[in-house]
Design goal:
homodimer, about 300 residues, alpha/beta, Methyltransferase, Cobalt-precorrin-4 Transmethylase, Domain 2, 3 domains, five-stranded parallel beta sheet
């Protein structure tokens, strides 16, 4: 049996009792380590589960899936995913491969950022399409997520913005460095060895700055955007962990709010119900400003 | 401390390890029993937790919230919710009341139907606004959910339809019966005693029938609806439980598909990615028909 097990969002104890029993029963346990990250870290998980974890990066899952599934028809194998196995990223590929090999699979669900954001008080059924905000580079500054947020807001809906994660990234500079080295003398040593950048996690500040830049662009193009510096947003950090932080305020305030370490997410609000407003006010950066701006939108 | 603890979707073992520890530590443990239902049932939970559960129906939560929060500033009280505490239904009222009384609160998240539906292979970020399909009565047949589904589909998005639950419902007939009895002789015995209907849970069949009826209405009004008998839908029953069932097929097929006991949910698909199609095909009622209809939409 292949078990796809969600770990939830906070620490080792956020696994379900059913999930923990399955992990302890499995012969091999993989930890998906490229679409999210648990604040607890791998060692804490290994200690709590009493099991050694095999880190599964994108390369392994995409190129060596058969090694993950090896013998799963005769023994139990677990594939652990931060959040839910079918949350922000799905692992359909692995499931389809298992089914094609005749290996039965079972999903053990858990909280993911897709439902846990409800903790800020905005109601999940008032959310439109979820968007991903990607890190801009000098030469690549996509704005498509802005138009989706705009559309949601025009429909009165909130938008959950998932913020970019870069793990085991091979930068252009690094790829060139490897190439140069290979062409010179250290060929034998470096062949097949990849150099990776340190992981990067987009903060709410960075996401807000990119959105503010888009608003400026749009104004230069003569558009008065649906979303402005004063649109009420929510910044969330480490949702589900002991030290989670939630801050509500204007988009401009989000560009400077201090939320600490990763992972961050952001919500751009649509039209708010009075109960949603009251909940968000619990987390406001500046209560008087919050009420002013929120009131403007909702009347 | 007030703990709001998600129980997940299947059985007693779907609580997280952290949630279980909190439950065992609490002086009083309430089980929210009106917006959802755990297949496992109350006794199984009590046995597994080693704790007596106090059933909290809508009346208690809305009218006697202070009794739930009593002494929560000096002892630990747990409020258990099937799924996630901020999933399909939020408990913001209880949180705000606690905050106003100076009682600290903590949320322990879990899977909810809002994220666990991902198990059918449709990707959560391709979902638009979630809708609720309510039981029609002879005199009340709202169609507003249909227009939301239509809008999502026009935008290429899938729609999760949450299906109606009626628990501890006082029917018009029952209310009249009580009144009559009271006016006659049994006044003393029946005073203050309410008679409730047995709980009702909408099935995928019923939801599909209501949608098909709306499509007929719209055609009579000269509209050729965006959603037809042949639109690909997904019926889900008891998601997360050992005996969960998923069936994909046309809306018409959903009106007769056999999914067993509650709780049911339904998805009306939008535009599908090839990987989504391949996953849905695993659950198709009739594979050849599925491919025909799905292909029509996606080209």
């Amino acid at each position: 049996m292949l078990y796809l097990i969600g770990l939830g969002l906070g620490d080792a104890e956020d696994i379900t009792v059913k999930g923990l029993e399955a992990v302890r029963r499995c012969r091999r346990v993989y930890l998906e380590a490229y679409t999210s990250v648990l604040p607890a870290g791998r060692e804490a998980l290994e200690k709590f589960y009493g099991k050694e974890l095999i880190l599964a990066d994108r390369e392994m899952v995409e190129q060596e899936a058969d090694s993950i599934l090896k013998d799963a028809d005769v023994c139990d194998v677990a594939f652990l995913v931060v959040g839910d196995p079918f949350g922000a990223t799905t692992h359909s590929d692995l499931v389809l491969r298992a089914v094609n090999l005749g290996i039965p699979y079972r999903v053990i669900h858990n909280a993911s950022i897709m439902n846990a954001v409800g903790c800020c008080g905005l109601q999940l059924y008032n959310f439109g399409e979820t968007v991903s905000i990607v890190f801009w580079t000098d030469t690549w500054k996509p704005e498509s997520f802005f138009d989706k947020i705009k559309k949601n807001r025009q429909n009165g809906m909130h938008t959950l913005c998932l913020l970019d994660i870069k793990v085991k990234e091979q930068s252009v500079e690094n790829l060139m460095k490897i190439q140069t080295i290979c062409q010179l003398e250290a060929l034998q040593f470096h062949r097949g060895r990849k150099i990776y950048e340190p992981p990067r996690y987009m903060s709410v500040n960075q996401a807000a700055e990119q959105l503010l830049a888009i608003i400026q662009n749009r104004r230069l193009q003569g558009e008065e955007p649906e979303i402005t510096e004063n649109t009420i947003c929510v910044g969330l950090a480490r949702v589900g962990a002991q030290d989670q932080k939630i801050a509500s305020g204007t988009l401009y305030q989000m560009s400077t709010v201090e939320l600490g370490g990763p992972l961050h997410s952001m919500i751009v609000t649509g039209t708010m119900h009075p109960l949603e407003l009251e909940m968000l006010n619990l987390f406001s950066v500046d209560s008087s400003k919050f009420e002013n701006n929120a009131f403007q939108r909702n009347t």
